[in-house]
Each structure stands twice: as C-alpha cells, then as structure tokens.
Amino acid sequence: MLSRAGKIKVSKLPFAIRLVRREERSRWQALMARYHYLGFKHIVGESLYYVVTCGDEWVALLGWGSAALKCGVRDRWIGWDSSLKYRRLKFIANNTRFLILPGWHLPNLASHILAMNTKRLSEDWLRYHGHKVVLAETFVDCGRFDGTCYKAAGWHKLGITRGYSKNNRLYWKNNQPKYIFVFPLQERAREILNGLFLPLDIIREQEVGAMLDVNRLPLDGEGGLIELLRGIPDPRKRRGIRHRVETILAIAICAALSGARSFCAIYEWALSASPDLLRKLGAKRKDPPSEPTIRRVLQKIDPVEIDIRVGKWLLEHADDSNKVISIDGKSLRRSCDVGEKPPHLLSAIVQQEALVVGQVDVDEKTNEIPKLKELLEPLPIEGATVSADALHTQRETARFIVEEKKADYVFIVKDNQKNLRQDIEDVFSLDDFPPSAQDIGQRTRKIRGKKDMDQHSFK
Question: For the domain 319-458, what is the CATH code?
C-alpha cells in the first residue's frame, strides 16, 4: 500500500474499476461504514456498488442509487415539470458515496476514478436494471468540501440546495446546504429527459431496431398522424373502451418508429411518454393504454389499411433532399409450417432512415415484376429515385416510374440483356459512371476495361 506522501503518478498505476461481487458486499459496506464521514446504512432504490483496485488491493469505493426525488436546482436546469419528472427520474443516477481508502490519497486520483466510473455507468445500469441512465448527480457538503474532484472530472456545478433532509415522506430543515453537481452520461441529456420522445435504446435493452427521429413528424392538427388515423374502424366492442383506437395506433406507430419491436416495448415506450405527448396523440387519460389493450387492438386491426396510410404519410414527411427508395424482395423463412412455402414480400424502403413505407405479398401464382407497380401505386414518390435489382430492369416498369409516378430510377443491367448493355456502352464512357459522384476517378481506376464489367447502372 502506498503512503500518503507517495508521489507516484496515477497514470503509472494499474487501476481498474469493477462492480462488487455478491460475496464482497459485506466487506464494502463495512469499509464504507468505518471510513466515510457519513457512515453507511443502505442505498435507496436501484443501486450499484463499485470498487477500484490496484492489483489485488482495494483503493476506493463508490455507491450509486436512485436520484433525489426533489431538487429544485436540478429540475430547473433540466426544465421538466413534476409529472414528467416522476416518469423519468429513474434515468438519473445519484453518486451517494465516494470513498478513497486510507493510504491511497494521490494527486488526481479521485477525478481519475470518477472518469473511469462514468464511462461505464450507463451500460452497467442497463445490464442490472434494464434501462440506461442519461445523467449522474451528486451532493457535496458545503461545510466540508468544495467538490474539486468533481470539477476536475468535468462535472457541472448547478448551485446549492436549501438544506433539507428527507425521512420517509417528511422533510425537515438540517441547515446543511449542499452543492449539486451533475454529469451528462449521454449527449443532449437535458433534451432527452425533457423531450416528448424518449429513445427506446435508453428505456430497454432488447428488441431495439432502426430508429427515426419522430420529433420532426407532425402528430396533431392538419396533416398530423391523428388526423391520418381517424376513421379507421375500431375492432373492439364499444362497452368499456377507455382509449380511442387512433390513440392506440398512434402510440404503437411512434413507438415502432423509435425502435420498439414488441408489444411490451411499445407499452414501455408509452409509459415513458410525457403527458403533453399523450395529449398530442389524442389520449384523454393520464395513463397510457395497457399492454394487453395495445396487443388486442394491433392483432385485430386491418394491417393493410394501416400500412398504406402510414407509408404514404411517412413519405410525405420524409427528407425531400436526395430521397432514395429501394425495392427489395425477401422470403420470410421460418414463418410457415414444415412443407409449406414461406411467404414472399416485396418492400419499398427509404434508404436514409432504413424505413419500410410499403410492402405487398407476392403469392405463388405471380412474381415480383408485376407487383412492383402495385407496391408503388399508392406512394407519393414524385422527385424520388427508385432503385431495384436486375429483375426489375423492364421497359414497362421504367415507363411507369418516370411517366406516371414522376420519379427517377436506377436499375442494374447484366449480361442477359446484351442489346441494352451494348447500347449503354456505346452511349456512355467509363468516366460517366457513376453520375454526379465525387470519386469518379477512383472508381474508374478500379475497372480495368469495358469487357471486365459484369454489370452497369443506368438511369
């Protein structure tokens, strides 16, 4: 063990931080109770216990718990109201204890430990409690400390508390105000905690797919999602209905666009939504619809009608700059009984957001070629570029996209279309591919000659 007078640099020592094992918990608690000036009884709410080691020796101890229920300085800094705070307080972690053990007081050690801890805190919280934390907070006794190590580790000093303590549900004045420090664990932590939508990758660990920034989509008012969904028949019996069908569908759609991939994920997303957001989605109650309600409605609703309406709506509000729609056909393996042919779907996907805006079933009696027109017919794709594989390099398909849908296309030409390929080679030189690309020279050098090309793109 080092002495207090040791001058070894922190960066030269093999410090490591890890979670305390179950069999080590009693040792952690005993050391904290003995050496910390506040002692130790327990940590309130969700908690994590850390130990910092140097080889086999324990160097420091850190304890994290649930955030303080009331902290005016912090709440004003975040900007949320009391209703939203109660829903999202669990996404803040409180550093309730920090102790460097005797004999290990080195310059810069405390800030170094804090930096190591905050790097892994959110992922550890996700692993043990099922959700991430986006903000860390701590309270520093003004009469004893100035919070120097927190400042050195990049924490923000927000102000000073009013000097109250909490015992069960009662608050009493202790005349011991504390500095409040916070450290954002995620980019835009305040926006996340105070925003309408909470990213699903923070709420839960599993089943998070590609996400879209739903905040930029109109929800209420003319052209909004609620208006789009009005008029869809409610498959439920009228008796006992608490949430309108358009509200349930809007919640499910927004949750899916945020990454939800199951009924439970949709419900958890709805639980984290702000009251203002629920009102925008047409909710008349403070609490969102339950998971069984969401499940029953989505299982009984007409998926084709929802698919068409939502696909058109998303395309209308997608980024118009360089909009590219990819046509892709996939067979759904393991989605049928043994001996049966799996269903085959042809989908239209907005490349920028990896978002499916339409799909049709390709049954056994046809193929993808005639189904492409059926897929694109209801979609507003004017000005967009449609890309597809060589199967769809057809005159009728190209004419439909350009003349009827007022869009452009990029198709693949292979050796089985010799005349078309020869026409392209006669009209265009290698320097013409790809058009408008900035790296034409590099791509051209990779092609050794016209005869070596096995495919072309043409527009």
Answer: 3.30.420
State the Cα–Cα distance between residues 411 and 421, nearest whole angstrom: 12
Sheet of 324-331, strands arranged across: 355-361, 344-350, 324-331, 385-387, 408-413, 456-458
Between helices 263-272 and 245-257, what is the axis angle to 10°? 100
Rounded to a whole number of angstroms, the distance between the first and last alpha carbons of the chain is 72
Is residue 358 a contact partner of residue 307, using CB atoms and an 8 Å limit?
yes
Same fold, 10-190 and 319-458: no
Q: Residue 160 is encoded by which pair of tokens?
A: 């000073």
Domain 10-190 of CATH type 3.50.50.60: no
User: DSSP assignment, residue 138?
Assistant: E
- Read off the pTM: 0.56
Tokens matching residue 341: 């042919």
Written as one letter, the residue type at 70 is K
| Domain extent listing, the chain | 10-190, 200-301, 319-458
Residues 400-457: tens digit of each pLDDT: 999 998 999 888 888 778 788 777 777 766 565 554 444 433 443 333 333 333 444 4
